[in-house]
Sequence to fold (226 residues):
Amino acid sequence: MSGLSGSASGDAPKRTAVLISGRGSNMAALVKAAEREDFPAEIALVLSNRADAAGLEFAKEHRIPTLVLNHKHYADRLAFDAALDAHLKAEGIEIVCLAGFMRLLTPWLVERWRNRMINVHPSLLPSFKGLHTHERALEAGVRVHGCTVHFVRAEMDEGPIILQAVVPIEADDTPDVLADRVLEQEHIIYPKGLELLASGRLTVAEERVLIEGVRGGLKPLVLPVV
Ligand code: GAR
Fold:
């Protein structure tokens, strides 16, 4: 089995594009991680489908090339995705990170980037796909919530899971308070997920991810601790 998008140590960092639609705090976390000298990916492009995405400013301040592709200027999803793909190719992009990119991608684009495109989602997938995950987790009364880094597949918020972080729910949580604690974890696991992919430590077998050198999980934990 060979690693995906792998670079042996000493190889050039993988040219990575981050796609955003808004705030861009996960993009910022990726940018900061990639500033580390030995990080196996470089953020070579930040692309937004909205000109007013706040994250674009951060990228510019960090001298990262930015591009706005307004989806409203394209006849349909496929035309937008074809333009997106052409730009990624022109920039020599090897890995794509979706970071709050609020556009459904066509199966055509997703397939072109199979196992080279990852996403972060604010829930423990496969629970709570879609929007308003924190409200829905609180409504469901689950004891733990969290976030997931996964490979992108054609169905929304689906795909082989790379990393997850568990965030216990507190009795007085509101959706906003919970969202803040989950976001903190997103900022930790997304750079780790990119690092694993870019350094060639991930293999997908039967739609499950194997991480080189990692066998197991954690000890079971019963929540709430009573
Ligand atoms: C993040 O919480 C991310 O997990 C979520 O959007 C937010 C973007 O914040 N993404 C999804 O819900 C994708 N299904 P950010 O722009 O500050 O990174």
Residues 20, 22-26, 99-100, 120-122, 157, 183, 186 surround glycinamide ribonucleotide (CB under 6 Å). The chain has a mean pLDDT of 95. The helical segments are 25-34, 55-61, 77-90, 107-112, 133-140, 175-198.
